[in-house]
Write a structure and sequence with these properties.
The protein is an alpha/beta fold. It has helices spanning 50-57, 83-92, 110-114, 116-121, 126-139, 145-150, 158-170, 188-201, 215-221, 239-244, 249-256, 291-295; strands spanning 6-19, 22-35, 39-43, 65-73, 76-77, 94-97, 174-180, 205-211, 224-229, 232-238, 301-303, 306-308. It has a domain at 6-104 and 173-265: P-loop containing nucleotide triphosphate hydrolases (Rossmann fold, 3-Layer(aba) Sandwich), CATH 3.40.50.
């Protein structure tokens, strides 16, 4: 049974990269619902699999990646549908604020990249597309927006680039907005701008999925938080629970590493995805670890409308 509140539903998603004969499991069986009307924040260290989950959904993974499982959108398993059908969904129902410089084509003017979806999928003319891009850049605080719309990515500064990426994702309404590390490398002033923009944009999207390592940012914009560690979903809960009483020891450690909570580094190192630890992948860094944790991977345990994957809670 699909949850009627779910707009997008992940069932057992596994992503494996073939690195010249070496298999790397980037996601190890993700089950997750994205509800209608919510902003879902996905947090985790670099290499935890959060961007891979986004890329698997949007078919942006490289050729050496294999995706298993099912992703339902409106009851349709979008991993199974033909490319042409998927492109229609991508154009009209999904939009993305991508991460970084490499997401912009160096040979295409900024306005064309911003207005590609409105022109291709919503019947806007070139003139309307250009005006829309200039207007959007102006609203995002870009100085001389009509000139910036006309030039290319290498001719703009980092702050303006970020605004062009935000404009790309918000130039047309859609059901789900996917946002990948929107505050990476930004100063506080720009972060505030992105936060405001995401809040304003909520009305144009039924749901949003935001991948970020920035907990303070997610605290401002998300309704629920899900935590990834070494390709495993280890906790899903409402924002308030996450920031007030997180259950998983990794979530607790993440919070304690914030400057406002003591700036305590998480002990040990991020695990290798090639040879992940046995049992619970967090066990080498966890102060609660027992011999069971070293040998048995915990199962997800549903609790208070959320989920935690940890032997401290699961009675498995
Ligand atoms: Fe720590 Fe064990 Fe829970 Fe893993 S399962 S987070 S090692 S207590």
């Amino acid at each position: 049974m699909h949850d009627s509140r779910a707009l997008l539903e992940y069932n057992g998603i596994e992503v494996t990269f073939d690195m010249g004969g070496l298999k790397v499991n980037a996601l190890r069986g993700i089950d997750l619902e994205v509800y209608r009307g919510e902003v879902l924040g996905i947090v985790g260290e670099s290499g935890s699999g959060k961007t891979v989950l986004l890329q698997a959904t949007l078919r942006l993974l490289p050729e050496n990646a294999k995706v298993r499982g099912r992703i339902f959108y409106n009851g349709l398993n979008i991993l199974n549908i033909k490319e042409r059908e998927f492109k229609k969904i991508l154009g009209r129902s999904f939009s993305i604020i991508p991460q970084g410089f490499g997401s912009l084509n160096p040979c295409i003017r900024n306005w064309v990249q911003i207005s590609e979806r409105p022109m291709e999928h919503f019947g806007k003319s070139k003139e309307e597309g250009y005006n829309m891009a200039s207007d959007l850049l102006g609203k995002l605080g870009v100085k001389n927006p009509s000139k910036v719309a006309q030039i290319y990515r290498h001719q703009i500064s980092g702050g303006t680039l970020q605004r062009v990426l935000v404009a790309m994702g918000t130039s047309a309404p859609s059901k789900i907005l996917f946002v990948d590390e929107p505050t990476k490398g930004l100063d506080e002033r720009m972060k505030r701008l992105v936060i405001e923009l995401i809040k304003i944009s909520r009305k144009n999207f039924e749901s949003m999925i935001i991948v970020s390592h920035d907990l303070n940012f997610l605290k401002e914009v998300s309704d629920r938080i899900c935590v990834l560690y070494c390709g495993d979903l280890v906790e899903v809960c409402y924002k308030r629970e996450f920031f007030e009483s997180p259950r998983h020891p990794y979530s607790q450690a993440l919070l304690l590493s914030l400057p406002s909570r003591g700036l305590l580094p998480i002990p040990g190192e991020s695990p290798s995805m090639v040879t992940p630890p046995s049992g619970c992948s967090f066990h080498p860094r966890c102060k609660h670890s027992t011999t069971v944790c070293e040998s048995r991977r915990p199962l997800p345990f549903l609790i208070d409308g959320g989920m935690v994957r940890c032997h401290l809670y699961a009675r498995d």
